[in-house]
Every structure is written in structure tokens, then in C-alpha cells.
Amino acid sequence: MNFLYSLSSEDLGRYSKLIQEVIRVRRHFDLLQWLQGDIQRYLPHEILVAAWGDFHNGVIDHDIVSALPGVRTTHSSSEALAPLLLGLFDRWNQLGKVPYALGVNETGFILENADLQCELGSALQGMRSSLVHGISDERGRHDCLYVIFSSNGELDNSARSTMEVLLPYIDTALRRVEHLPRQIRSTQQTQVNQADEEFGLSSREAEIMIWVRQGKTNPEIASILDISTFTVKNHMQRIFKKLDVFNRTQAVAKLENKILNVGS
């Protein structure tokens, strides 16, 4: 907790305000504004990459928060980022799950994966240091990893201490932001797949149930999946039969219970 002890009375007030502002985060734009505010005094960075999921089985999703042009979540895939993020997660585990810093020379972070030769890949070449920390999910399978990239020089022990104190609030802020549709599909598809073996749901039926669990109607699901409402209705009837239920509420409850049992 060296970070807190080092703060002046003025900084303590600013830090208290920063924490209180977490509850106002609702959208990705709110999260960006919060991360570009006073938090930059303590953790200066241009890019934040957050990853979560089942790292041990290589099934993860991600979010990118940055004010840099074009550096967005929608412009990069989790599959392309996975090798980098899995490597950083493994090292975090090996080091005892404490914050650690990485520094590079003037060439920046160069990603060899061809799928990352985009705005993110270009931006990382301008970064000179990164700081990595995570949060273990002791009750489930969704550990979280956070990586900040900065154009400043090597981050010192003070930055690592700061990251350790602030990460729970960064994590809370991210969790208040609704998933992007692509993230809902990829993250929850993993959970649903774990119940498929018992209920025998097809890949399309599992995908439909993801959106049913989000409260979507048949017409909305049809629009999302680019299929007809009639096709969705037919799939739902087969799902009801496989789950031995009579309506959507029962189907969601039964599937949620099975996923909970699988994850425990």
C-alpha cells in the first residue's frame, strides 16, 4: 500500500473522487472518460487491454480502451490477441500473481501475428512500457487480466504498487459496462457448450439460447442471426423438447442451473 501512503492531502481527495466516479460508469464512453481522467496522474497510459475467460483452456475475450484513433475492441479479434494475452497471463501466474512491468527499446511492442497488423499493432509500436496485473476468479473460470501500455519509459515499483491498489476499481468499472454483442456470443458460448453434452443442443440452438438468456424476443433473435422468425420458433420448440420444459423462463432456468453446476 505504498501508493496510498505517498499521497498528499490534495491527492487523497482526488483519489477519493476517482473511486466515487466508478459508480457513474455505464458505457464504454464513460469508461474511456474515467480512464483518461485523474487516473492518468497515477497510471499514465495510452492503451488498456482487459481480457477475461478460461485462460487455462485458452478461451478468452477482450476489451480495448484507448483514446488513440482506431484502437478499438471491434478492430481486433480475441483469437489474434490470444497468444500475447495467454503468455502474459502465464507469466503473471509464475510470478505469484503480482503486478509486473515490461519495457522495450525504441522499436516498441512489435506483434508478429499478421491478424494484428492493424491500428492496435501500429499503436503498440509506439509504446515503451507495459504493466500487467490480474484478478483470479476463485469461484468460477473467469480470471481477468489487465495490461496497460504507455509511451513513457520503464514503469517503476511505484507504478506496480499503484496498479495493485487501483485494479479492483478498474475491474469494477469494466464490469459495469455492457458487453459488446460479439463478446456476449463468444464468452457465453463457452458456458453454454459445457451444458450441450447433457442436453444435446446443436450449435445453432446454443447460440439462440445465448440471446434468450439476454431477454431477446424471437423477432430480435431472428434479426441478430439473420434468419427468419419462423426458424427461430422451430429451434425454440426443439430446445423445449430437449430440455423437457414448456416455456422460455423454464429453459433459461434449467440451462443456468446446469452451467452453474458445470462451473462449480
Describe the model.
The chain has 264 residues and is α+β, with helices and mostly antiparallel strands. The protein folds into two domains: 2-178, Beta-Lactamase (2-Layer Sandwich), CATH 3.30.450.80; 182-263, Winged helix-like DNA-binding domain superfamily/Winged helix DNA-binding domain (Arc Repressor Mutant, subunit A), CATH 1.10.10. It is 53% helix and 13% strand. It contains twelve helices and five strands. The chain has helices at 2-5, 9-20, 28-35, 39-42, 78-94, 119-124, 157-175, 181-199, 203-213, 218-225, 229-243, 248-263, and strands at residues 47-54, 59-66, 100-103, 129-135, 143-150. The chain has a five-stranded antiparallel β-sheet with strand order 2-1-5-4-3, with helices on both faces. β1 and β2 (59-66) form a beta hairpin. The longest helix has 19 residues, at 157-175. The mean pLDDT is 81. It comes from Chitinimonas arctica. Residues 194-259 form the HTH luxR-type domain. One of its GO terms (biological process) is regulation of DNA-templated transcription. Keywords: DNA-binding, Transcription, Transcription regulation. One of its GO terms (molecular function) is DNA binding.
